[in-house]
Design brief:
Layout: E1 4-5, E2 11-17, E3 23-29, E4 37-38, E5 46-49, E6 52-55, E7 58-67, E8 70-77, E9 81-87, E10 98-103, E11 110-113, E12 119-123, E13 132-138, E14 146-153, E15 163-170, E16 176-182, E17 186-192
Antiparallel strand pairs: 1-2, 2-3, 3-4, 5-6, 7-8, 8-9, 9-10, 11-12, 12-13, 13-14, 15-16, 16-17
């Protein structure tokens, strides 16, 4: 997912590793991208996954800053819902991740923070198939979410009905642009007026 500029001028780039498990972290640059420092990994937790207790794997975080030094991430997970971790030191260290309650099928997610602090999240709200893609909105720093708009909603159990790996950005006119894979054949772009 895309990097963000923190209030102090540091660039925070979400990152993850997929070797011997899934681990999320953030790369930080204080000099405009010339040099980078890796944050600590998001601490591991266990949860019930497919009927047994196992380590929650997380990758591909998406970031926002709620106040100076207060950075947050939502994470793609293998545990049936989106997970979250918070940092109080500008993304250098991360708190224990916890489930958000947002149903998730282990696919890519992305969010953008609006000028008024509202968060808009693009994600698949399904347990297995990627046949539905929506935008959800949070007005309380990502603790509760409500539906903003359905981008795709096709019958499940049809492999061609896949709409996934969204990316969402805020345009200069205040609307949103969302790109995503369309039926694994091409890329679709939706423009959403708020």
């Amino acid at each position: 997912n895309k990097p963000i500029m923190l209030s102090g001028g540091t660039i925070a780039a979400p990152a993850s590793r997929e070797v011997s498990g899934w681990y999320a972290f953030v790369d930080l640059s204080r000099d405009g991208g010339k040099t980078w420092e890796r944050s600590g990994f998001v601490p591991e937790v266990k949860a019930m996954i497919k009927g047994k207790e196992d380590k929650v794997g997380v990758i591909q975080p998406t970031l926002w800053e709620s106040a100076p030094g207060k950075v947050h991430m939502l994470l793609r997970s293998n545990a049936g819902q989106i997970y979250r971790s918070d940092s109080g030191d500008g993304g250098h260290t991360w708190g224990t991740m916890y489930p958000t309650g947002l149903v998730h099928n282990n696919s890519g997610i992305d969010l953008v923070k609006l000028a008024d602090g509202t968060l808009v999240l693009a994600h698949n709200p399904t347990t297995y198939w990627r046949n539905k893609l929506i935008l959800s909105v949070s007005r309380d720093n990502g603790f509760t979410w409500e539906l903003l708009q359905v981008l795709e909603d096709k019958p499940e159990n049809v492999p061609e009905n896949e709409y996934s790996y969204p990316s969402v950005i805020l345009l200069q006119n205040g609307s949103l642009a969302v790109s995503y894979t369309f039926e694994r054949r091409t890329i679709a772009i939706a423009k959403v007026t708020l």
